[in-house]
Design a protein that fits this description.
alpha/beta, seven-stranded mixed sheet, six-stranded parallel sheet, 9 helices
């Protein structure tokens, strides 16, 4: 697995005979013996010798997303500390001898690979040219960094997995999350009818104010509201074509934190014939009756893991095409991400702790 994720042998030191290093401050994540996650800003040595296909970028903004420790462990990427902050926007300082896409002073945005050894919160990073796209001038550093991963995720869910088409009906669970909003905006752009759930009255307000408007906002914070009834009523009993969940309940008895999530049976019930269920639940368990229901509807279940784009050399062009499209949609106003006011580096640890616990409703971007 390590090989697959090492980006076709274009690792951080590719092309360097003897990698010179310098020290820079970055944000890192350490695991305690009890398995608790701790975030620290510290000086680390970073390579300065540029590889053939590498670009040296001065980082202007870096978005914070939760660190998926389990995924890193599954991919054998264990280390003493994980670099934090992968979605970056900045200015090209220097390019490697074989770089064709960029030149110095270009404004760029991209995502550091999972096996990157440096934090995106370092002042300067070396990154493969195949992980970057040009940033339109009118898009701010913070919008670009804050939307690139959610945009990639929305594309993966709706285009790659669900094959959305004009006239489809989509249900986005937790529609006011940073990812949910971009999924709704992308679906509207393609002529899809959108229903969305709101987990709080504040989220309901955000969703009701969206333009183009959501066909129905389902306030699941109100125990009297039933998501299945609402969806079937809205679709004349036919069910929805696509569901994107934000986690599901697998059992009747679940912790309080999961009480607003729909049960897996609810999702299967509200899916229409030939429907696509795109799930973020990595340990989804389907029993034989669940599979039977899905079979009778000729429905499908897909797992949403946008990190997979970097695992295949054959998908590299598609990956770059999606990232280009995301920034273009930011430039035209199709994508309007919810981004917090940029935070300074010294506040990054506190912000990251809140991001990891999923306590914030807007995307956090660190200003460098």
């Amino acid at each position: 697995t390590r090989k697959i994720w090492h980006r076709n042998n274009r690792s951080t030191h590719f092309g360097a005979k003897q990698s010179k290093k310098s020290t820079m401050k970055g944000l890192y994540c350490k695991l305690s013996e009890a398995g608790e996650v701790k975030f620290i800003i510290q000086e680390t040595s970073v390579p300065t010798t540029i590889g053939n296909h590498q670009v040296k970028v001065q980082v202007k903004g870096c978005a914070l997303s939760p660190v998926d420790i389990k995924l890193c462990e599954d991919l054998k990427l264990q280390r003493e500390q994980f670099p934090v902050g992968r979605e970056i926007a900045g200015v090209v300082l220097q390019v490697g001898p074989k770089v064709t896409f960029f030149q110095p002073d270009d404004e760029v945005v991209g995502i550091l690979p999972l096996d990157a050894e440096v934090s995106g919160l370092c002042d300067v990073v070396l990154i493969d040219e195949y992980d970057l796209v040009q940033k339109p001038e009118k898009v701010s550093w913070f919008e670009a960094a804050g939307a690139i991963k959610d945009g990639l995720r929305a594309y993966t869910a709706l285009h790659t997995l669900a094959r959305m088409a004009v006239g489809h009906t989509l249900l986005v669970l937790d529609g006011a999350s940073p990812f949910g909003l971009l999924a709704i905006q992308l679906a509207h752009y393609h002529g899809v009818k959108v229903l969305a759930t709101a987990v709080s009255p504040e989220d309901q307000k955000v969703l009701e104010q969206l333009r183009p408007s959501v066909a129905r906002v389902i306030g699941v914070w109100d125990s009297k509201v039933d998501v299945v009834d609402s969806c079937l009523e809205e679709t004349g009993g036919l069910g929805v074509d696509i569901v994107i969940d934000a986690g599901v309940r697998l059992y009747e008895e679940e912790p309080e934190i999961k009480k607003h999530l729909p049960h897996k049976h609810d999702i299967i019930t509200l899916l229409g014939v030939g429907g696509h269920w795109v799930t973020t639940e990595d340990n989804l368990q389907l029993d034989p009756p669940d599979s039977r229901s899905l079979f009778l509807k000729a429905a499908s279940v897909s797992f949403l893991n946008e990190e997979v784009w970097e695992a295949s050399r054959a998908r590299q062009g598609r990956y770059l095409h999606i990232m280009k499209d995301v920034v273009e949609k930011l430039a035209t106003g199709t994508f309007r991400p919810l981004v917090e006011n940029p935070v300074p580096l010294y506040e990054a640890t506190v912000s990251m702790e809140m991001v990891q616990k999923r306590q914030l409703r807007k995307r956090v971007v660190v200003k460098l």
